[in-house]
Write the structure tokens for this entry.
Amino acid sequence: MQTRNITFNLPVELIQQAKVYAAQHNTTMNALLRELLLEKLSKDDRVRTAAQRFLELARKGPNSTVDPHTIRREELHERW
């Protein structure tokens, strides 16, 4: 994976808290921010996928051969 340096402007107190958290969890600020961003973006992808699946089911409407009672919540959210 190609990387690039970036600069953030964050409140001093937030930076201090993040440094303490990173040290307590034996990680770096860089790794912590990367992990948080990846987690947030993948969660958004799961929500988007679930919404698309729900809309697909809704488009079939009353003519659908799918019994709505057979659709499990997990299928709508496609949890991994």
